[in-house]
Amino acid sequence: MSWTYSVTLTAAKDKVRWYTQDTNTNEQLVQDEEITFALSEKSQNILQTSALVAEIIARKFGRQATITTPDLRADLGQRAAFYWSLAQDLRTRTVAVSPFIGGISIDNKETYVDDEDRVRPLFEKDQFVVPGTGTSEPAIARGGEAP
User: Fold this and answer.
1) What secondary structure does DSSP assign to the chain, as a single string?
2) Cα–Cα distance between 124 and 80 in angstroms, integer?
3) Between 51 and which of 14, 27, 91, 113 could a Cys-Cys bridge form, CB atoms 3.0 to 4.6 Å apart?
């Protein structure tokens, strides 16, 4: 097993180490091979892999006991909580949600309305049905005048 890190951050492995702050040679948290495996599990997505690695680190610290001596107290549960929080933070950053705001451009609106493959909203179905006229689109909807 090996542990390497380069501050140039050119390799995916180094980016994962940077996000998880596993950058100290004297305190190696995960090995290169573990990061390579995690990258393959997450389709080479750096943030998703970093979240997974942070979870793994949290589990490592979570299973270790708190160490107390007269001069020192090492609360590994606190470190586990930090890495769980980091994993959640990284995972929320991987969710790409971009809202759609329609109706801003007339051309875009007409494109959506003219798209025959688009599922029509319920409020739009039978919107221009005029009972008793035999037409489903009154003259005003076609740009004419009201009957």
Assistant:
1) ------TT--SHHHHHHHHHT---TTS--S-HHHHHHHHHHTTT-HHHHHHHHHHHHHHHHHTSPPEE-SS-EE-HHHHHHHHHHHHHHHHHHH--------SS-HHHHHHHHH-TTSPPPGGGTTTT-BTTTTBSS-GGGGTS---
2) 52
3) 91
CA 25 to chain centre: 30
Cα–Cα distance, 62 to 71 (Å, whole number): 23
45-59 confidence digits (pLDDT tens): 999 999 999 999 999
Q: Residue 66 carries which side chain, given as an amino acid letter?
A: T
